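Subject: for your reference before the review

Hello V.,

The reviewers asked for a structural picture of the protein, and I figured it would be easier to keep everything in one thread rather than splitting it across files. Below is the amino acid sequence we used in the manuscript, unchanged from the supplementary table.
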Amino acid sequence: MLFCSRIVGWDNTVYSEGKPNSMPSHIVEREKHEGFSYLSKFYALKDCVDRGETRLLWVDACVHLHEPLLKNVNSHLDEHGCLLIQANSLLKEWCTDRFCRIINKDRKDLDYNLIVGGVFGFDLNHPAGKDFYDNLEKLTKEESLWFGPCGVPWKKEDVGTERLSMDTSVKGHRHDQAVIAFIVNELMKEKPSMFQSGEVGPHFYTQEYTIREYEKDPSKDSYYFPAEASFTHHPTKHHLENTLLR
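And here is what came back from the structure prediction:
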């Protein structure tokens, strides 16, 4: 892989290069034919849990953590047990037909938001965090939930095909984001409180923020995230050139 993602435990940081110890080798082989599944992210989390970590925060390699992070994250996990950010996109538009069959749901029933996969956390000593992780571990074994073409903008040719969905309103498959959204909305005993709704502030800022700032005033040479941001997402050249490994 070209990207390292990272898991931040409160006492240590673990860097994952997509080959966690606990991930079965057949998944790596399957990814050679069906594309990246993001299952490595969750087997990396499992490795940390197996080592005895109880409070974990996943952060993608292209996400930067800033000074306000620990206070915001710790207080949220203390109270809610999960740190989850609601994305702006809907699950019904970002999952394969196979995903719907496996979870035994009609697409129209998935009219709720994805959950951001680049930043999320849980505390196993909190009932909600334990519930989240238990469901995540269970669905990690449902491997076909995670596989599917990314669609727009990386593989537009898959839109409207059986590989993705014959429904042309389906834009692609969002792997980890889709699975987490299903867990949060359908499987957890109590729906957790979101750390943030939407992908622009108050804690996590994606490139959408800088795009909006540019649209307001294209004359500037530079555009900056707010100083108080806890997390900021910085696209790499692979994001901008559509050359991510998918």
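For the response letter, the relevant points are probably these. The mean pLDDT is 87. Residues 5-240 form one domain.

Happy to draft the paragraph if you're swamped.

O.
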